[in-house]
Amino acid sequence: MTVRIGVITFPGSLDDRDAQRAIRVAGAEPVALWHGSHDLDGVDALVLPGGFSYGDYLRAGAIAALAPIMADVKDAAAAGVPVLGICNGFQMLVEAHLLPGGLIRNAHQQFIRRDQKLRVENASTAWTSGFEAGQEIVVPLKNADGGYIADAETLARIEGEGLVAFRYAGINPNGSLNDIAGLTNERGNVVGLMPHPEHAVEPGFGPDTSEAMRSGVDGLAFFRSAIAAVVGVAA
Q1: Element (H, E) at 76
Q2: Is residue 97 annotated as a catalytic residue, yes or no?
Q3: In angstroms, rounded to a whole number, what is the distance separating the alpha carbons of residues 102 and 151?
Q4: Which range (45-49, 133-137, 202-206, 227-231) has the least confidence?
Q5: 93 contacts 99 by C-beta, under 8 angstroms
Q6: Of the listed 87, 95, 121, 199, which one is catalytic?
Q7: pLDDT tens digits for 7-27?
């Protein structure tokens, strides 16, 4: 079975081609989708990539969340299709109310780019089954509006229901509440995170590790987890 994973391009998307390549490296077929369409082309999973959709005017991800294709993304998510939002894609997911809370300007008011250590909090989602709970991974982070916020009631529900998918480890780079770097929905098919797993899938191009420079490939498990979820086997 060839798993087909769609990557939606919005005006201002920067990492759509990177996501497509990561999908190909992981062993699936990437399918380019367009924000103005209502056609998901029968894909098995979806990725909302990073970038600055619509220039991040209004709020990051807010305009893109109203794009025509997002109605179809919501329907697909409700049907159980795996959906991953990366950085700007995470912002779209919260603006579209597919994930709770919101994302605001980094606490230090500056764009940040670093190789970021994360702790896996929930390894039972369609995008994280290839990890173990408590495992620490490293993937690149690059954002200006990555501060996760939620009201006290929402934050308590997120924590109580195990909806935190990833936390920042070692350092909180943007002031996110409870060190939250990524979330999942209750069903486990929708996941969003600020760091960029698609930039950690090939030796020679990923984060530095103790073994070699640029050898980190922790991002591969995201896409292989989704492939496994679609075909119904363990990652």
Answers
A1: helix 68-78
A2: no
A3: 10
A4: 202-206
A5: yes
A6: 87
A7: 999 999 999 999 999 999 999
Has residue 215 got a pLDDT over 90?
no
Catalytic member of 35, 95, 121, 196: 196
**Cβ contact 205:145 at 8 Å:** no
Domain count for the chain: 1
Q: Which domain holds residue 170?
A: 4-231
Q: Report pLDDT digits (tens) over 150-172.
A: 999 999 999 999 999 999 999 99
Q: Is 95 a catalytic residue?
A: no
- The Cα 197–Cα 151 span in angstroms is 28
Task: Identify the three-state secondary structure at position 181.
Answer: strand
Looking at the chain, the number of H-run helices and the number of E-run strands are 5, 11
State the catalytic residue, choosing from 35, 95, 198, 199.
198
214 band by pLDDT with thresholds 50, 70 and 90: confident
| CATH of residue 76 | 3.40.50.880
Residue 62: what residue type?
A: A
Q: What is the 3-state secondary structure (H, E, C) of 8-65?
A: EECCCECCHHHHHHHHHHHCCEEEEEECCCCCCCCCCEEEECCECHHHHCCCCCCCHH
Per-residue pLDDT at 209: 85
For residue 29, count other CB atoms closer than 10 A to its CB. 14
Task: Tell me whether residue 196 is one of the annotated catalytic residues.
Answer: yes
